[in-house]
Write a structure and sequence with these properties.
Length: 396
């Protein structure tokens, strides 16, 4: 009789145990990876911008901590494998990750590499692009297995254009670099000028001739060369630098022939994130990252954090670890994620680009946030930034 009563009490206790507590003994594992492809590029002009060994990975670690905070109550466990490789090892690294059963891969690479990895992955994995900004990746070269967390060139150009038009600075002197990525960015500024009613009074190309840019006498050469390069331009309100390759733009402020502000790739810069950001609860977020990494958060860190938080949010909302279920939810109209930017972030269904505000920043401060208030949209004000549905060239 006593055994029967004991058994009954155990059964009652099991039934009374919350579902999440029962699951905690055997949590669902949600696996992802961060694949960073480190190509040989010019060293940044400023030593403050030198890449760190944990670039992107530090953001991933914070995201996993955040995902696990919620996941432990849902019976879910998150992990993100970190892989850094050169271009020659990217395909093998991707195959290894997919072979290990990882279905979500955050890619930190240039446009060409991101596209090649997406084609190689096919329907075996979902690629979350957290670095490449080329508009073609969201247009003629779009792929159904890529979700774009990094903003496009069109988004950052539109964000800056809105602010400049609010300032009533419609006359732009555009200086673009000579690399393909610079041309793509310059095209985005040309499109933004047409879209918002600005006028590009002149365009000049700064040819990258190679050579040392960070020698002891570099500032002397810049002080002589930049004023000459920028002289005799038609009257303009602001100089726009389209220098995605970081060849010349940081040298422009205070070195132009005419006393005019510089914006774009230097001066007033549109970014996804900035270490001085404090609004909308960002201070605590910044502090947690700095405690974890021992340095301020950079854009690539934020974009990687956001990519993995998107996966975590999908897992929380669906209560599933099935990659197909998570992907379907991410691309549904039910998905939204918080990004410390004052409003929910969602994904456009026509090109799978994450909608998000863009910060307009100086070296030490955030000057503004776009979209600017006067620019409205019938669906989402965030769709005033970048390629809207009627304009898209994407066809999955």
């Amino acid at each position: 009789m006593i055994r029967a009563i004991t058994g009954f009490l155990v059964a009652v206790l099991l039934l009374a145990t919350p579902v999440w507590a029962q699951r905690a003994a055997d949590p669902m594992l949600i696996r992802a990876a961060v694949l960073r492809v480190d190509a040989q590029t010019l060293r940044p002009i400023s030593r403050l911008e030198l890449p760190t060994a944990d670039l992107g990975f530090a953001g991933a670690r914070l995201a996993i901590e955040d995902n696990d905070t919620t996941g432990r109550f849902m019976g879910q466990d998150f992990e993100a494998q970190e892989v850094a490789t050169g271009p020659d090892g990217a395909n093998a690294a991707l195959d290894s990750l997919i072979g290990a059963g990882i279905a979500f891969i955050v890619v930190l690479a240039d446009d060409q590499t991101t596209l090649a990895l997406a084609d190689r992955a096919g329907d075996r994995a979902t690629i979350l692009n957290a670095r490449a900004r080329g508009d073609a990746l969201r247009g003629a070269d779009c792929r159904a297995n890529i979700i774009h967390v990094a903003p496009s060139h069109a988004m950052i150009a539109d964000a800056l254009a809105q602010f400049l038009m609010w300032k009533n600075w419609p006359r732009w002197f555009l200086v673009e670099g000579s690399h393909p990525a610079d041309t793509d960015l310059a095209d985005a500024y040309r499109r933004a000028a047409s879209k918002f009613g600005a006028k590009i009074v002149e365009t000049r190309v700064y040819e990258d001739t190679g050579g040392a840019r960070r020698t002891d006498s570099g500032h002397v050469q810049v002080q002589k060369q930049m004023p000459v390069f920028t002289q005799r331009a038609p009257a303009y309100d602001v100089m726009i630098a389209a220098d995605d390759s970081d060849v010349f733009a940081p040298y422009l402020p205070y070195q132009t022939w005419d006393p005019r502000p510089v914006a774009g790739s230097a001066g007033l810069v549109p970014r996804t994130w900035h270490p001085a950001m404090e609004a909308w609860g960002a201070s605590q977020f910044q502090n947690r990252f700095e405690e974890l990494a021992g340095r301020p958060m950079r854009e690539v860190d934020y974009q990687t954090w956001l990519a993995l938080r998107m996966i975590g949010e999908a897992a929380t909302r669906t209560g599933s670890a099935d990659p197909a279920v998570l992907r379907d939810f991410l691309l549904s109209d039910r998905f939204e994620v918080a990004g410390f930017k004052g409003q929910k972030l969602t994904i456009r269904d026509w090109d799978q680009q994450l909608r998000q505000p863009i910060l307009l920043t100086t070296g030490d401060l955030m000057a503004s946030v776009s979209p600017q208030g006067q620019y409205l949209h019938q669906v989402s004000q965030l769709d005033t930034l970048g390629i809207d549905r009627p304009e898209t060239e994407c066809s999955f």
